[in-house]
Amino acid sequence: MDTDIEVLIAGAGPTGLLLAGELGLAGVRAAVAERLPHRTGHSKALNLQPRTAEVLDCRGWLAPVLDRSLTLLPAGHFAGLPLDYSALDTAFPHQVGIPQARVEEFLEDHLAQYGVPVLRGRELTSLRQDADGVTATLRGPDGTESICRARYLVGADGGRSTVRHLLGTPFPGRDGRIGMAVADIELAPVDGGSDSPGEPWQLPDLTPDPAGVAFLLPLGDGVHRLILGGPEQQGVDRDAPVTDDEVRTALARCPGPPRALRAVRWASRFTDASRQAERYAEGRVLLAGDAAHIHAPAGGQGLNLGMQDAFNLGWKLAATLRGRAPDGLLATYHAERHPVGARVLANTQAQMVLTLPDPDALVVRELLTDLLTVPEANRRVAAMIAGTDIRYPMPGAPDHPLLGARAPGVRLPGGRGALLADAASAVTAAASAWADRVDRLDRGPLAAEGEALLVRPDGYVCWAGPDDDTHELRSALTRWFGLPLR
User: Fold this and answer.
1) Which domain holds residue 262?
2) How many CA atoms lie within 13 A of 412 on its CB side?
3) Number of Cβ within a 10 Å radius of residue 172
4) How many of the other CB atoms lie within 10 Å of CB of 253?
5) How far is 40 from 265, CA to CA, in rounded Å?
6) Where in this chain does the record put each FAD-binding domain (predicted)?
7) Domain containing 115 — which CATH number?
8) Which residue blocks in 398-462 are alpha helix, DSSP H?
9) 0.85 exceeded by the pTM?
10) Model confidence over 333-371: pLDDT tens digits?
């Protein structure tokens, strides 16, 4: 039995790997158990939204991720309708075009500096929790079983989560009604043309069409991503192989010059199923990413929602394990992230309706198209898809524009909190009792003259007030960071 693990994470996707990195940064002994024996190199997702770019930049990790990216797309979309990201209040007003596999590769490589192992070929088959921890059974590639004991277990093992199933957590919602598929393909030259056209990334054309949806994105090295959804994909079992004929039919519908199929490297089916776990935490077992919520990939939000789950959970779990967490801190993970997930499910359902070739849906789409020409309406929807409008409920002055919102541009590479205040202010002196958990940073442009801001390790403002209000600051520090040093 392995008893030297504080947190066992099931699933080595972006959610599980980012969570493992956050725990490793905090000095937590974590391990990741992954059913697959090695990375497949396949990528379901292809983008990072602006808020996820901010998350990575907050830790100083964005630059190496950008080095692995394919493009920057200065816009988002809502059911294919363009959203202007240049109007967003962020240093990263664009989507980062990057295959999920490259994000996973960076995150896993990054774990090495913390000594966090990724146990590949280890499938979680059972779990039992008690007041002190969780006992899990892991089955290896040769069928042998090992027992792992951890203080907490996090299920980040995808939409068909074994952890969620073993917990018996209700997963209400609805099954998929629209079938689609994705394929990474190689193209062959047609009529003397290039076998690897260099077209730039563009927003998908999701105008309702009885023939279905079909569009291409270049992934480099002669590989293209094909998204297809037409009559041929409806009513097909999700586990059925995607045929070459399906791919050729969709390829013929793609805009642009004629293209021929050379080979299909990888293909998979998906639907617009929409479900969310009733609870993200059951005792010492927590759910994150697709294990906690599934939805249609409309707007490119799924990978980002999961990574932001991990960013919210990591510091809270670490503080709990180190005995520094105030009462109820870990419970705020569900309280904060469940509504965010529900909102994504709602907007993806709305987007899918707007892609249907139904007369009523077309009328609504025309109306929304007109509304999105209004800059403020476009900015509001863009912020929702980009993830920059998230605002968690926080005690304090509700009318302060930053309370509960993210603090853009604040870097927290050590995974600690920060007080943005002048060095000589009264609140800086008061916060010194939390110096092992909270750093002081220069006030900068976020805080007004005579004001201070307290920022959590996940980059959200949890207190804002005058820089002489030591009483309210101490209350906020205790609420989010626990008791002061004695």
Assistant:
1) 179-271
2) 29
3) 9
4) 14
5) 11
6) 5-347
7) 3.50.50.60
8) 426-431
9) yes
10) 999 999 999 999 999 999 999 999 999 999 999 999 999
